[in-house]
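Trying the structure run again after the queue cleared.
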Amino acid sequence: MDLIAPDMTTLSPTPKMVKGDSVDVKAQDESLPRTPIMRQYELVERVKSYDPDADEDLLNRAYVFAMQAHGAQIRASGAPYFSHPLEVAGILTGMRMDAVTIVTALLHDVVEDTAVTLEEIEKLFGKDVAQLVDGVTKLSRIELQSDQTKQAENFRKLLLAMSADIRVLLVKLADRLHNMRTLHFVKDPEKRQRIARETLDIYAPLAERIGIETMKDELQDLAFAEINVDARDSIVARLSYLREEGGNLAEKIRGTLEKLLRNEGVHATVEGREKTPYSIWRKMTRKAIAFEQLSDIMAFRVLVDTVGNCYQSLGIIHNHYAGIPGRFKDYISTPKPNKYQSIHTTIIGPERQKIEVQIRTNEMHEVAELGVAAHWAYKQDAHSHDGSEYRWLRELLDIVEHAQKPEEFLEHTKLELFQDQVFCFSPKGDIITLPRGATPVDFAYAVHSAMGDSCVGSKVNGRMVPLRTELQNGDQVEIITQKNGTPSPAWERFVVTGKARARIRRFVRIQQRVEYIALGRAMLEKICKQEGVDFGEKPFEAVAKNFQSSSLEDLFANIGASLQPARDVFFAAYPDRKNRPPEKELSSAMIEAAQKLQKRPAARTDAPLALKGLIPGMAVHFARCCHPLPGDEIVGIVATGRGVTVHTTDCETLDSFRDMPERWIDVAWDDEQGKEADKMVGRLVVVLANKPNGLGHLTTIIGKGNGNILNLKITNRTVDFFDILVDVEVKDTRHLLDIIAALRASNAIIAVDRAKGR
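Done. Tokens:
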């Protein structure tokens, strides 16, 4: 290709459009490096080679307009700035994108970096181009710093823009690819590191998600070369050594496979592919293995004409070479979310080498290389190719809606992008793709948000299982819902999808707000009582705005969440009370009240076991939310009128006392004095199979474990199982754990654990 460099100084700031214009100019400064610039007619010929009906006039006008708009601007490399949008357009012609996308690539920086307005773009090039340029421009408006909030906000804008038209993402990816190819010209090492890390974290996974494998590989490798140059150089050196040692080994294997298939009547093309340095490094890191232990450094692709030929080739190869167990994947019958299809198998192949073989049709190979771009139809309405067809994109947009903070959104989004998939089935046979490690709760949210919110149980392959069960490839999952069911905060500990975590956190935030409002109100009522003032809402409503609260509920919530001291709010509402002598410390008043309770008859006013850290004679109660047992880490909470309530340190109820440290007392079990004390009560949550004598098994096992059932309550009942709360009298934590272990060994017991916060 005959390429020449333009003279940017000869261009006027106001473009003049002439059909078929060809601009030949030379470098503005002879001291700067000469950069080849694709000629105007060459760009048009590239597009028309795969799309003969492309709008030639539109392409010509965009070329000249962009060149003149960028004028004498220079990149960090010293090249004319126009070389960048032209290279981006060139990358997209390699993906055979339509003329509108190529024009967008040429114009993607003019609104941001020149005096050109979006209105001018729409007037000169049409609404579609203007919308795409606007989508790409919005992404560049926030210069990404190390500040994670800005990074998350920029990525959020990318998702919203590409949800309207996936071509926005294609232009942005091509833009990032060219920037990465020229990253070495950026002088600031911190900036290079930031751009490389962002590429690895966000743009490479996005390229993978829309199936552009070649772009993903190059983005990853360019970023890897900047982030960990030593590791990359080491891997490249080893690969070079293997190539030298192996000589023409790869060619021998390729030829042998091709001849084998041809002799069996299958017309196939076999290609060798070396794993990229980044992929090698990531696998070594993830599996904690050495370079020598990798079995798929060299993979071979078998390209055939039909799907039938794919399975025929698989049978021929497996008939001649031993397969490695556990290394077979059929992505033809169950494609990846990005439409990738292929059969993967690892064999002890020709020359006794362990190799990976990928079998696919030529059409599948095109999709694997170009992803969404391979399906682009130039004569159809562009809206038929927008982001709405991508389920994963809808999942990310749902996260945008429900994440509270940009940082949280970025965290959840990375969960969606970075994990390997497992394929599960609904009872109707629909395939649901989930990250590896996903649970039935993740499955429920993947089907529908409402199903996740109301999920109360699950069956996997027809058998009731706990909601934290890790799903495997091929599992059939049935979700059991309840009309008034709500997400459990405990689910956040085991879900792995960003969508599930975002929905659970949203529910928890709503619940916390209700609790904070009630707690904040109670704290103000208590202070009013101590100060001898009748509680009323109007005085506090009048001062709410003084504390950046738009409503009285917001003020109560801020007090309950410890964002605003309750006494400050009280004195703002009643300023005349500020100079009065202070009342006794809250904790002292509570302790005094608790000490008086020792004279009152009350249930369990004495601790069954002696406790360290209590004032002699203080009334003690053991919390019924967490049922503490000897052996648990515990803490005491002082309550007016009740003495001290003992909780386990991981009890969820303690969250409501975080902003009241004066009510906390350090307590511990006194093992020496408590050896002969009465037994304590532990609570179990049991999921019991609905089978004959199931309840008998439960009670028998507890009895054999020397546990005494004090109470048993069925909390949920279905055709297949019972949810049961069981209060068991035991000596200590170890005694209860022994009973739990025995219960788990029974086939009648689906799940059992200690109750927390019930």
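The CA atoms of residues 334 and 423 lie 8 Å apart. Worth checking whether this holds up in the mutant runs.
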